[in-house]
Design a protein that fits this description.
Layout: E1 7-11, H1 29-38, E2 43-45, H2 56-64, E3 69-77, H3 86-102, E4 107-112, H4 131-152, E5 155-158, H5 169-178, E6 184-189, H6 190-195, H7 200-206, E7 211-216, E8 218-219, H8 221-230, H9 234-239, E9 243-244, H10 253-261, E10 267-271, H11 283-296
Parallel strand pairs: 1-2, 1-10, 2-3, 3-4, 4-5, 5-6, 6-7, 7-10
Antiparallel strand pairs: 8-9
């Protein structure tokens, strides 16, 4: 077994069933911090802005007292919609980026907006972007990445995501080919990429220089087949258990981690098992087992 010396393992509020800044079905943020530290993780993400304390001093005290460090903040943005959404987008992005910077993080995870409602499945936009929208998306992503880098010193990593316009191999590679490698990198989420038919190992081998960050998750192939057959939105699919505990699903994570290690760069690999909503006692045992599994892979 190869020791994955370049891979830094962490977890995120997502693995505790947290999708929103405030929701009665989610665990309290103090409990999340206690349990993620107790489960053997050193690194965390901020999760939805407002879930963890947004005061940098308080956040530093709460994470530091538990031996935790922040790797990234996360934002959603509909940059394909053009300059008209820039101001509202930047208002949110700047808040998250400022907190991430103050927390010592080096990355901002950028997720494209959904083309259908994550809960109801109502179609909000066409599933496919036009050529002009692709050009707008690429230009907007570069602009955001440049501003985030210049103002906050963070690296922007785009996160392909189910039910967004950047999901399949075709769409992911189209965005990568259309953007400046010095500005835009990829947050490869192994679960979302498999959900949309992609091969994570092949993507790492082909676009290795663009891989800037990893999210580790797996999908249950049987549930995924049902999801595709019924054309379920992502939210209900998660409720049905499409994202499963490693190593029960796909893709196999050890080959992904080995491929990432071979890039010979330092990479965060953040565990994200979508489980919203879930019983409050469910996440920690899974988190512990997942950490042990990743240790068995050399991480």
């Amino acid at each position: 077994m190869t020791t994955l010396s370049r891979i830094r393992i962490g977890s995120a509020p997502d693995s505790w069933g947290v999708w929103f800044p405030d929701d009665p079905r989610q665990v309290d943020w103090r409990r999340f911090l206690d349990e993620v530290a107790a489960s053997g993780y050193e690194w965390i993400e901020l999760g939805p802005y407002g879930y963890l304390p947004t005061d940098p001093v308080q956040l530093a005290e709460e994470t530091g007292s538990r031996g935790l460090k922040v790797s990234a903040g996360t934002v959603f943005a509909g940059l394909h919609r053009g300059p008209g959404v820039w101001e509202s987008t930047w208002e949110h992005v700047s808040s998250v980026a400022a907190l991430a910077q103050a927390s010592g993080a080096g990355h901002l995870v950028l997720i494209p907006s959904f083309w259908r409602d994550d809960k109801t499945g109502a179609v909000l936009e066409d599933r496919e972007l036009s050529a002009e929208q692709w050009r707008t998306l690429a230009a907007g992503t570069e602009r955001l990445a440049r501003e985030v880098r210049d103002r906050y010193g963070l690296r922007t990593v785009v996160h392909p995501h189910a039910d967004t316009h950047v999901d399949t191999e075709e769409h992911v590679t189209r965005l990568l080919d259309a953007t400046d490698p010095d500005l835009v990198s990829l947050c490869l989420d192994t679960g979302h990429y498999a959900y949309c038919g992609g091969d994570s190992v092949r993507l790492i081998e082909t676009y290795g220089e663009r891989i800037g960050y990893l999210h580790l998750k797996q999908v249950d192939p049987a549930v995924l087949a049902q999801v595709h057959a019924e054309d379920l939105p992502f939210g209900p699919a998660v409720g049905r258990g499409v994202m499963c505990e490693p190593p029960a699903g796909v893709p196999a994570l050890e080959p992904v981690l080995q491929a990432a290690q071979s890039l010979d760069v330092d990479l965060f690999a953040i565990v994200e098992q979508d489980m919203y909503p879930c019983e409050p006692d469910r996440p920690q045992p899974i988190a512990r087992r997942t950490r042990e599994f990743l240790r068995s892979c050399g991480a």
